[in-house]
Amino acid sequence: MAKKDEDGEDSGIGVATKTRTKTQRPSLYRVLLLNDDYTPMEFVIAVLQQVFHKSQEEAVTITMHVHNNGVGECGVFPYEVAETKVTRVMDAARKHQHPLQCVMEKQ
Length: 107
Ligand code: TYC
Description:
The chain is an alpha+beta fold and 107 residues long. The chain contains three helices and three strands, in the order βααβαβ. The radius of gyration is 25 Å and the shape is elongated.
C-alpha cells in the first residue's frame, strides 16, 4: 500500500510488490536432413511438403541444397515438435527402404 502524505495525497513511497518472473522460453531445435546417394529426390521433396509443410518450390530448393551441401535445415521447432518430425521422416524412410537421415540439434 502506498503511503499517503499529510494531505492524504499519494506520497509515491511504498513497498515494491511486483516480482520479476523470468519467462522461460522453450529451447529451439533445428531439424536437419542429411544427404545420401540413394534416396530419390522426389521422396525428399514429398517429405518436405508433407512433414514440414513446404511448398513444392521450397521443397525443391531445400532438397537441392542438401544434395549439394550434404546437410540442410527443414525448420526450427520446440523439442517435442522437432522430435515428432524427425520420427515421421525416419519412419517414412524406413517404410520405403531409403537411407534418408533426419536429425535435430539444439539451436
Ligand atoms: N542425393 C540424392 C540423390 O542424388 C538426393 C537426396 C537429397 C538425398 C537430399 C537425401 O536429404 C537428401 N538421389
